[in-house]
Write a structure and sequence with these properties.
471 residues; alpha+beta; 5-stranded antiparallel sheet; 8 helices; 15% helix; 39% strand
């Protein structure tokens, strides 16, 4: 299930795009501004709104580290902002001075692509902010762009209805004509890479004026040839679909439509899970948080809604027995406080709440952090608490666990599952160690990993939590 946790109403015109980083959330609007929020409580940062564009802002995206935000506008520029100070780091003027409709950063933050109303593309070296290549498709407007998870190719979409795959030298690798009747509106790569034998496979979602959301497979063969094939056509919305986005684990897909709805799909099985109906006008933007089960949706009603994907168990419903069945890493701050009271450590509750200690933070506490950050002066109290935490870890080991919940490397129940480039899920610490010592090979296939990028598998983590609740 999903629940609406807050509505942001700061923009004075249509919301055109929204984007998450690890701890920040950004929106942009026809009112010429960008706004940045802290994802802990969605309070606006002191230097927000960001002003500098002369016309409406169409798109925004964070760098991988979250320290920079790129935005593009009808004023024919793409601007790069510091998310630490709010200052403009660079102004990239698009060749030909045509209105810039779309911009995208590669996952490795090495390149930025901007696409304009005259069909031109500009590929920028992001660290130096220098123009590297240009390209063009005649008689069209570039409205969509997404980099592959390996950062080596990118897809563009236009109002002519085609999807085109490009490499970093601006060579067209594939053109899918008439991908969407009447025009493409958005496209996005899934974050994982599937590899096996002589083929590397990507997934791409696209949406358009034909009211359809489509899922494609893109196969790269050892010869260097790319082939694109339609896998699923999703028809959950009754009007043009304006935006789409994958979750960071690639398991879910969200889209927003002119029919004012937001749809959430099981991306693997192409099954409609939820239809959300809170906006009063067209839904123009949507995105997932990479670090928590949140969805953001923006609209021409000038608002942004923040939704939480629930795992079916609220804090109020968690009894002591019910809480003990959850993964400790999934405990809320309230669960941690209740556990402290049960263990005779109620004197620590205020300190833990003041420092926002949830289950994940509880499991990584050390004597050093207890002394320096929580200021617990008693050595005996620190030792007692750590013994209780170790007992929690021991008690969490149980038998009869579904195999897909076990890390393929450690064969232990996963607490922080992540998806690697081979498409398999692992415990983060285990796959990090493997990559550092095994020369970047896949533990499951022995093939080279094309990237060391790891994406949190929130869907699997929630499934493990539900399983623990029922067992």
């Amino acid at each position: 299930m999903t629940s609406l946790i807050c509505t942001l109403q700061d923009h004075r015109d249509d919301v055109n795009w929204c984007a998450f980083s690890g701890n920040l959330f950004a929106t942009c609007s026809g009112d010429k501004t960008l706004r940045i929020y802290n994802t802990r409580d969605f309070s606006e940062l002191p230097f927000s709104p960001l002003t500098g564009h002369g016309y409406g802002v169409h798109c925004c995206c964070f760098s991988a580290c979250g320290q920079f935000l790129a935005s593009c506008s009808t004023d024919a520029t793409t601007m790069v902002w510091s998310t630490v100070t709010g200052d403009i780091e660079a102004v990239l003027e698009h060749p030909g001075r045509s209105p810039v409709r779309i911009c995208a950063l590669s996952p490795d933050s090495a390149h930025l692509v901007s696409g304009a109303s005259d069909g031109t593309l500009a590929l920028w070296d992001f660290p130096s902010k220098q123009l590297r290549r240009t390209g063009a498709v005649s008689d069209t407007t570039m409205v969509a762009c997404s980099f592959s998870p390996c950062s080596q190719v990118f897809m563009t979409g236009s109002n002519y209805g085609d999807l085109r795959l490009w490499d970093l030298d601006m060579n067209q690798l594939h053109a899918e004509k008439n991908a969407h009747d009447l025009g493409v509106t958005c496209c996005t790569f899934a974050p994982s890479i599937l590899s096996g034998g002589q083929v590397v496979q990507f997934r791409l979602a696209s949406c358009g004026q034909d009211s359809l959301l489509k899922i494609w497979t893109i196969n790269k063969f050892i010869s260097g040839v790319y082939k694109m094939q339609l896998l699923h056509t999703l028809t959950g919305q009754s009007a043009p679909v304006l935006s789409c986005a994958y979750s960071s684990d690639g398991q879910l897909l969200v889209s927003g439509s002119v029919d004012k709805t937001v749809t959430v799909y099981d991306a693997k099985n192409a099954v409609l899970l939820y239809t959300l109906n809170q906006h009063e006008r067209y839904v123009t933007a949507c995105c997932f948080s990479p670090t928590s089960p949140l969805i953001a949706t923006g609209s021409m009603d000038k608002t942004v809604n923040i939704w939480r994907l629930e795992d079916g168990c609220s804090d109020r419903e968690r009894t002591s027995a019910g809480r003990s069945k959850l993964l400790v890493a999934d405990w809320s701050e309230g669960d941690v406080s209740a556990w402290l009271v049960e263990e005779g450590l109620e004197g620590l509750v205020d300190k833990f709440r003041a420092n926002n200690i949830d289950g994940t933070e509880l499991l990584i506490l050390t004597k050093e952090t207890l002394a320096s950050e929580l200021h617990i002066e008693s050595v005996g109290l620190r030792s007692k608490l750590l013994r209780k935490v170790e007992q929690l870890k021991s008690d969490s080991v149980c038998s009869g666990i579904p195999d897909e919940f076990l890390c393929p490397i450690t064969r232990e129940l996963m607490r922080e599952p992540v998806i690697a480039a081979d498409g398999y899920s692992y415990e983060r610490e285990a796959i990090d160690s493997w990559i550092n010592t095994k020369n970047r090979s896949s533990p499951m296939t022995n093939l080279p990993l094309l990237t060391t990028l790891l994406t949190p598998n929130h869907t699997l983590k929630m499934a493990i939590g539900r399983w623990k609740t029922n067992h």
